[in-house]
Write a structure and sequence with these properties.
heterodimer, A: mainly alpha, Helix Hairpins, 79% helix, B: mainly alpha, 2 strands, globular
Chain lengths: 100, 648
C-alpha cells in the first residue's frame, strides 16, 4: 500500500472522530476542537491526494483552509468567551434560546 | 322619418330621469326631483305622441316599421340586433304606458309627498318606464326579454320600497322568485324558437311560423313554443298557478300598484302572447291551455276577491281576474279583444288603485274596508272617480269595460276556439266582479262611518292627485266607444286598427266554423249585463239594505268563507310542497352536506393538511445545534452511500 492510502485512511478516522466529538460532546470548547479536528482531517486528505496526483492545488487549498480556520477560531473563541461570561456555563444544551 | 328612426329617445328619456334622480337625487329638493321625474315622463309622452302621429302617415307597406340601432349579440349563426319595431300594437301600448304612466307620476308627486326616499321612488318609477318601453318597442325577443326582466327588477324594488317592513321585503322577493319560474319557461321558449326558426326577430319568426302547418293533429314544436312562452306570460301576468305574487305585491306604494301591478307590467304577458298570435293560431292546443288557464284564473281570483277586507287586496285579485279575461280572449283567438281589454283595464284599474290610494290617504293609512264607510260625502271627488271606474269594470253599458268585456265574452262563446263552458265561467266571473266591486264601493263610501271620527280626520286629496283621477275617469267612461258601432252592425274601429297585427291569426280563424250564429250576440250581451246587475243587486242587498245579512251568510258558510279568505290555502300549499322542501334540502343537503362538508371541507382540509405537515416538519428544527449536525452527518452518509452505489 502506498503512503497516501494510509494518509487518507488516517484522515477519515480523524474526521470521524471529529464528527463524533461534535455530535456527542457537551462542552463548547471540545466541540470547537472537534471542528478543528475535522478541518485538519480534510487538510490531511488534501495533502495526500496532492501527493498522489502530483498536483500542487491540493497543498495550496490547505493554506486557504488553515487561514479560514484561524479566522474562524478567533471569531469562535470570541463568541464562546461571551457565552461563558453571560451564562456562566459552557454546556451546549443550556444554549437553547432559538429552541421552540 | 326622423322621429320614428329615433324612437329610442322615448325610453331614453325616463332612463335619463332615473339616472339623474337615482345618482344625484339625494341632494335635490323635492321640486327638483319632481321636475326631473315628471319632466322626463312628460317629454317621453309628448315624443311618443309625435311618433304616433308620424306613424299614422306611414303607408301600410312600411308597417311594421323596424329600425336597428346596432348589432347587439353576434355569435356563429346567432345575430341579434338591438332593434325597435313599431306597429299598431306597439303604438297602442306606447300610448297606454306613457300616458297612464305620466298620469300616475303626477299622482305620485302628491301621494308620496311625505314619504322617506322620495327621490329613490321616482328613480325606480322612471327606470320602470324605461324597461317597459324597451319591452314594447323591442323588435326581437331578446330585446323584449331585457325589458321583461327589467320591469321585473323594478317591480321587486318598488314592492320592497318600504324595505324596513318585513312583509314588504318578503313580498318583493316572492314576486321576484315566482317570476323566475315563468322567465325560465320564457327562456326555454326563446331557445326553441331559435332552434326552429334560426332567428329571434319577432316579425321574421312570425312570418316563418305563418308558413308552417296548423298543428291540429297533435302537439308539435309550435305547440311547445306556445306553451313555454305562456309559462313566461303566466308568471309576469299572474295567472294560475303563478299568480300568488301579485296580491302580495300590494305591499308597495299605491301608485306602484296602479302603474306596475295593474296597468302596465302585468299586461306584458298578454302583450307577448298577442305579439306571438301567429304561433298560437298554429297551435290550437296551446290556445286551449291559454283559454282554460285564463278562464280558471279569472274565476278563482274573483271568488277570492269576494271576501277580502283590505281595499287594495280586493283590487289585486280583481286585477288577476281581469288578466285572466285577457288570456281567455287570446286563448279563443280574439287577440284584439284581449288587447282592447288590456287598454280599458289599464284605464279603469289604474283609476281604481289611484282612487283607493286617495281613500287610504284620506283615512290616514287605513286600508281595511271594515274600518271605513260613509266616505261618499267627505271625499266626493274621489268617490265619483272611483264609482266611474267601478261601473266600467262591472261592465255597465256605456262604460269602457263593458265594450271590452262584452267582446271577450261574446268571443269566448262564438269563436271557433270558444265553448259554452268558457262563456259560462266568464259570465259567472262577470257577476262576481260586479258583486265584489260594489261591495268595495258600499263598504267604503256608503253606510255609517265605522272609523273613529275623533282620531281620523278625513280629508280630500290635493289637486295633483285628483286631476289624474279625473282624466282617468274620463278615459274609463269614454275609452271603449270606438268599439261601439259594432253593436249596431257597424265596424269595430279598435279591431280594425289592430287588424294588420293579427291579420294572419284572423285569416286562420276564418277557415274554422263558428260555433254560434251572429244573431245570438245581443242575447249574450243581455245575459252579461243582467249578470252584472244581479251582482250589484246582491252587493246592495247584503251590504246596504241588510248589513246583518252579510254576517249571517258569513256564519252560515263559514267553511267556504274561511277557504276564500285564506285564498284556497294556495300559499300554504306552496309553502308545504315547494318552499319547505326546498328550504329543507337547502339546509340539510346543500348547506350542511355540500357547503359545510364538501366545499368548506376541501378548503379547511387543505389548511389542516398544511398545518399537520408543518407540525411534523417542525420537530426536525429542534433548535438544538447537535441534532442539526447529526442530520448533516446522516445526510452526508446517505449521499456517500448513494454515490458508492451509483459508482458500481
Amino acid at each position: 500500500m502506498p503512503l497516501p492510502f494510509y494518509a487518507v485512511v488516517l484522515s477519515a478516522i480523524l474526521f470521524g472522530l471529529g464528527v463524533m466529538g461534535f455530535v456527542f460532546k457537551r462542552n463548547i470548547i471540545t466541540i470547537f476542537m472537534s471542528i478543528e479536528l475535522m478541518l485538519n482531517a480534510v487538510n490531511l486528505s488534501f495533502v495526500a491526494f496532492s501527493q498522489m496526483r502530483h498536483l500542487l492545488q491540493g497543498q495550496v487549498f490547505v493554506f486557504f483552509v488553515i487561514v479560514v480556520a484561524a479566522a474562524e477560531a478567533a471569531v469562535g473563541m470570541g463568541i464562546i468567551l461571551q457565552v461563558a461570561r453571560n451564562r456562566q456555563s459552557l454546556n451546549i444544551e443550556r444554549i437553547d434560546l432559538l429552541k421552540l | 322619418m326622423s322621429l320614428l328612426d329615433n324612437a329610442w329617445i322615448i325610453p331614453a328619456l325616463p332612463l335619463a330621469g332615473a339616472a339623474v334622480n337615482g345618482l344625484l337625487g339625494k341632494r335635490f329638493t323635492k321640486p327638483t326631483v319632481n321636475a326631473v321625474a315628471l319632466g322626463s315622463t312628460t317629454l317621453a309622452f309628448l315624443y311618443a305622441l309625435a311618433v304616433v302621429n308620424e306613424f299614422s302617415h306611414l303607408p301600410a307597406s312600411q308597417i311594421p316599421f323596424t329600425h336597428s340601432y346596432f348589432t347587439w349579440i353576434s355569435a356563429g349563426s346567432l345575430s341579434i340586433d338591438f332593434a325597435f319595431a313599431i306597429d299598431q300594437l306597439t303604438v297602442l301600448m306606447l300610448m297606454v304606458v306613457t300616458g297612464v304612466g305620466w298620469l300616475i307620476h303626477i299622482y305620485a308627486t302628491g301621494y308620496m309627498a311625505h314619504e322617506e326616499g322620495y327621490y329613490r321612488f321616482f328613480a325606480y318609477l322612471n327606470l320602470f318606464m324605461f324597461f317597459m318601453l324597451v319591452l314594447i318597442l323591442g323588435a326581437t325577443y331578446p330585446v323584449m326579454f331585457v325589458g321583461w326582466e327589467g320591469v321585473g327588477l323594478c317591480s321587486y324594488l318598488l314592492i320592497g320600497f318600504y324595505f324596513l317592513k318585513k312583509s314588504a321585503s318578503d313580498a318583493g322577493k316572492k314576486a321576484f322568485i315566482v317570476n323566475r319560474v315563468g322567465d325560465f319557461g320564457f327562456l326555454l321558449g326563446l331557445f326553441l324558437i331559435f332552434k326552429t326558426f334560426g332567428t329571434l326577430d319577432i316579425h321574421k319568426v312570425v312570418e316563418q311560423a305563418a308558413h308552417l302547418p296548423v298543428e291540429t293533429a297533435g302537439a308539435g314544436t309550435l305547440t311547445l313554443i306556445g306553451l313555454l312562452l305562456f309559462v313566461g306570460a303566466a308568471g309576469k301576468s299572474a295567472q294560475v298557478p303563478l299568480y300568488v305574487w301579485l296580491p302580495d305585491a300590494m305591499e308597495g306604494p299605491t301608485p306602484v300598484s296602479a302603474l306596475i301591478h295593474a296597468a302596465t307590467m302585468v299586461t306584458a304577458g298578454v302583450y307577448m302572447v298577442a305579439r306571438s298570435s301567429t304561433i298560437y293560431v298554429h297551435a290550437p292546443m296551446a290556445m286551449r291551455v291559454v283559454a282554460v288557464v285564463g278562464c280558471l284564473t279569472a274565476f278563482l281570483a274573483a271568488t277570492i276577491g269576494l271576501v277580502q277586507t283590505d281595499i287594495k287586496r280586493v283590487l289585486a285579485y280583481s286585477t288577476v281576474s281581469q288578466l285572466g279575461y285577457m288570456f281567455l280572449a287570446c286563448g279563443v283567438g280574439a287577440f284584439s279583444a284581449g288587447v282592447f281589454h288590456l287598454m280599458t283595464h289599464a284605464f279603469f284599474k289604474a283609476l281604481l288603485f289611484l282612487a283607493a290610494g286617495s281613500v287610504i290617504h284620506a283615512m290616514g293609512g287605513e286600508q281595511d274596508m271594515r274600518h271605513m264607510g260613509g266616505l261618499r260625502k267627505p271625499i266626493a271627488g274621489t268617490f265619483w272617480c272611483m264609482f266611474t271606474a267601478t261601473l266600467a269594470i262591472a261592465g255597465i253599458p256605456g262604460f269602457s269595460g263593458f265594450f271590452s268585456k262584452d267582446e271577450i265574452l261574446w268571443e269566448s262563446l262564438s269563436s271557433p276556439y270558444g265553448s259554452r263552458a268558457l262563456w259560462l265561467a266568464g259570465v259567472i266571473t262577470a257577476i262576481l266582479t260586479a258583486f265584489y266591486m260594489f261591495r268595495l264601493i258600499f263598504l267604503t263610501f256608503f253606510g255609517e262611518p265605522r272609523y273613529d271620527e275623533h282620531h281620523v280626520h278625513v280629508h280630500e286629496s290635493p289637486k295633483n292627485m285628483l286631476v289624474p283621477l279625473m282624466v282617468l275617469a274620463a278615459l274609463s267612461l269614454g275609452g271603449g266607444w270606438m268599439a261601439a258601432p259594432k253593436l249596431f252592425g257597424g265596424t269595430d274601429h279598435f279591431e280594425e286598427f289592430l287588424h294588420p297585427v293579427f291579420a294572419h291569426a284572423d285569416e286562420v280563424r276564418e277557415h274554422l266554423p263558428a260555433s254560434v250564429p251572429e244573431s245570438m250576440e245581443h242575447t249574450a250581451m243581455a245575459v252579461t249585463v243582467l249578470g252584472a246587475a244581479l251582482g250589484i243587486f246582491v252587493a246592495w242587498f247584503l251590504y246596504l239594505k241588510k248589513p246583518k245579512a252579510a254576517d249571517e251568510m258569513e256564519a252560515a258558510l263559514s267553511g267556504a268563507h274561511r277557504t276564500l279568505l285564506h285564498k284556497y290555502y294556495v300559499d300554504e300549499l306552496y309553502d308545504a310542497v315547494i318552499v319547505h322542501p326546498i328550504q329543507w334540502i337547502s339546509t340539510n343537503v346543500f348547506w350542511k352536506v355540500v357547503d359545510t362538508g364538501a366545499i368548506d371541507g376541501a378548503v379547511n382540509g387543505i389548511g389542516y393538511t398544511a398545518r399537520d405537515l408543518g407540525y411534523g416538519a417542525r420537530t426536525v428544527q429542534s433548535g438544538n445545534g447537535r441534532s442539526y449536525a447529526s442530520w448533516l452527518v446522516v445526510g452526508a452518509a446517505a449521499v456517500t452511500v448513494i454515490f458508492l452505489w451509483l459508482g458500481h
